[in-house]
Amino acid sequence: LGAYGDLLNMTSNITGVVPQISVVLGPCFGAGAMIAVSADVVIVSESAQLSLETDGMHGGFEENEINGISHITAQNDDEAISRAKEVLMMLPSNNLSVSPAAESVEAKLSGDAIDALAEKAIGGDDISQEIISSVADNGSFIELQKAFGTAVKVGFARIGGYASGIIASCGAKLDSDSCSKAARFIRFCDSFSIPVITFANSEGFSTLKDAAKLASAYAEATTAKITVIYGQAYGAYYVAVAGKGANADVTIAWYTGAVHALNPVTASAMLWSDRLKGSADPIADRAKLADEYRETEASVLKAAANGYVQDVIEPSQTRCRLIAYIEMLASKRVSTLPRKHGNSQM
């Protein structure tokens, strides 16, 4: 027990100093499991058992995936070790080093295929995976915790050869698991000065606690932060993810995006209610009114004119803009107030 305590103590003390990866290939129970899951990235094979219970109860790879304990599941030992190597290539050796660069590779999607995504975004489709494929070097995206917190995708990718952390909202409300997943990933990237690229499109948050949790992670992170609004970013979600409260270095938007203090349905009902007086079909007219409000008052062009978005771009311009911003922010350094640690929502 003393030895396990020493190992857990050492593991906790070097968190954020050097990257830690656990590769679990067989039974790992009790205190040993605590040490394994304290790593930044936990990779398990399908034959692994990872559980606090010494009889292995609830330690199967599927349960660990759903509960967000493991980040990557491999079919066998060789694949698990190979995936660990892929992750290591994205990370610096310590928090004072920079991530290794690689030769730039063209993205999987380009040109007209990317611009076609804009119409899907307007229609409310989940295009998060397609967006990642349009900006990341082909084959470089490593998704983490795929089965946990499914309202958001997180993972590492190279963009123009530069290692980056990607967070892509899928359009739905962000629940507690999704916020926890994104918040921890932000802190991981921030520990090693890996740029965080956020693709924003969400209905908002499930609870106030979840909103505060994610907002705190963004606000505290001093690494380079670039947000791309490709869908809706209303109220608290915009503030937490893309606004000045999130300390975003750059916020750009597709022309399909929308930014406003309120959802257009609510805002139009409150502020333009007089236009529905005497309507023969108030339900249909209310929907038209909300669409008009989104295209005018909630337009990203208006947000850009008021300084809340730095630029409005075509979807096909996203990758080249991101590469330019990553290069520009490579030397970013921020001095923070002295303290032991924060006390944000968990």
Count every beta strand, where a strand is a DSSP E run of 2 or more residues.
Answer: 14
> Reading side by side through the largest sheet, how are the strands ordered?
6-7-8-9-10-12-14
Can you give the mean pLDDT?
91
Model regions low in confidence, pLDDT < 50 over at least 5 residues:
none
Q: How many helices in DSSP terms? A: 13
C-alpha geometry:
globular
- Outline the biggest β-sheet: 7 strands, mixed
Helix content percent band: 25-40%
Termini gap: 28 Å
Order of helices and strands: HEEHEEHEHHHEEEHEHEEHEEHHHEH
Strand content: 15-25%
Computed CA radius of gyration, to the nearest angstrom: 22 Å
Structural class estimated from helices and strands: alpha/beta
Explained architecture:
- This protein has about 350 residues and is of the alpha/beta class.
- Helices cover about 40% and strands about 20% of the residues.
- It contains 13 helices and 14 strands.
- Strand 8, helix 7 and strand 9 (about 195-200) form a beta-alpha-beta unit.
Key traits:
346 residues; 7-stranded mixed beta sheet; alpha/beta
Summarize the structure.
By secondary structure, this protein is an alpha/beta fold. The chain is 38% helix and 18% strand. A seven-stranded mixed β-sheet has the order 6-7-8-9-10-12-14, sandwiched between helices. A three-stranded parallel β-sheet has the order 1-3-5, with helices on one face. Strands 2-4 form a two-stranded parallel sheet.
